[in-house]
Amino acid sequence: MSEKPKKGAKLLAFWLFGTVMVVFAAITAYILFIGRMAGSITAMMAIKSGFPIWGVTALAAVIIYAGYYFYNKNKN
Questions:
Q1: 2 located within any domain
Q2: How far apart are CA 9 and CA 38, in angstroms?
Q3: pLDDT tens across 49-64, in order?
Q4: Residue 53 is part of which domain span?
């Protein structure tokens, strides 16, 4: 892979990782906020409850990055 696709892959990885972290934080905070208003919920319960949402987001980020990486590798 030449220098330009490597730079693009690093930038894509940065943004995908940031997206996953924002989704994780937002979903966990939302579940904690609503859960604390409705009753008692712990942080671990909120993380476990949000796993399907942020887990799918993380999986999608890995698939997107792998697709981009292999597309550029085969293109050159």
A1: no
A2: 43
A3: 999 999 999 999 999 9
A4: 8-75
